[in-house]
Amino acid sequence: MNVAVLERPPAPVGDTTPKRKVRLAGVDLARAVAVLGMVLVHTGAYRQVGDDVFIAFRGRASILFAVLAGLSLALSTGGQVCHRGERLAADRRSIAARGGALLLLGMALTALGTPVVIILSSYAVLFWVALPMLRWSWQRLATVALAWAVVGPMVALGLRKALPRPDMFGQTASFSGFTGWSRAGEMLHSVFLDGMFPVIIWVPFLLMGMALGRWGLARRGADWRLMLTGLVMSVVGYGGSWLALDVFGGRSALVHHVAAVAPDDAETIVDRALHVVAWGAFSVDPWQWILAASPHTGTPFEIIGSGGVALAVIGLCLALVRWVPRVVGPLVTLGRYPLTVYVGHVLVIWLLITLDAFSPSWPMLIAFLVVPVVFAVLWARFVGRGPLERGLTWIGNTAAGR
Length: 402
Hints:
- It contains 18 helices and no strands.
- The protein has one domain.
- It is mainly alpha-helical.
- It is globular and about 60 Å long.
- The chain crosses the membrane at residues 29-49, 61-81, 101-129, 141-159, 191-212, 224-245, 303-325, 337-355, 361-380.
- This is Heparan-alpha-glucosaminide N-acetyltransferase domain-containing protein.
């Protein structure tokens, strides 16, 4: 997450058409869905909204945000035609500097000790990884994204088998990783391989969004094309996982393996692991875990399926801002302040836990979802750019020499 994610990308010279405004509003709406989805998950309100709704957002909201990050990154560096020369060099300096700021901010939020696994650190690394890919065409980006979605988890599986296993899964970067060589190794292991948002697994989401930005949202029928493409990808991802597990024997192999340790609860354990419990990376033993598609497993099936959901949501948001602009207007406004809202909700969770007042309930969930919308509307009306977005803009512009 960088300049591309945290603010509306600048319009190319002469591009102030209503079509562009609608296109950007659609991106803002999708970003609001992603942010509020993460907020819902972090409040732990699964009893209030039900397991099915909770699981629908778990993992997929952050993936949608990653795809949007890549999309906005492409838009901010030229859209369909990437910047060249010194302008592109300035873009890269800006992105790198903002990534550094986000890494520090992410580690600071992690230091608060809340149950929220902070995504900002992994996003910062993702954008550094993407810097040499900015000039790629949408065809090349899409091809590499697809190949990485399949090969990346296999490479991660091999590395995780070869390297020592960490004591805990689902971690992210923290200041403690800079207190010694062993801690640094553990942190790198978490950031790249088996944390909640492992970079080697999440690169396809960023590239998917970048490909979309280079392809161009102004194309005729972009909304329904995205919805259709997303639907097909979801069927391939989730349907392929179902076939592999329930038709070709993957689930039976997992149950047989778990039964050696817990014979009475093997089916329950496997079912829960395949549908609910995952912390960023699938188990390496047995290999059939790679056939899952549940949130935060990081398998090829999850990458393709959840990536498809993200594309479908973006397409739907592009359509909604045309069909019912006034209805979705407040959410569009919220989507302009993603970093402020994200950091704000983590700070509120920390404060409530400190005061021993954090208890998932309908009133708390509604407050977490409604207050950010009200804040965004009022801030936009009376102030303008979000406070944290403004700060990152200054950092990026300074690094770029603007």
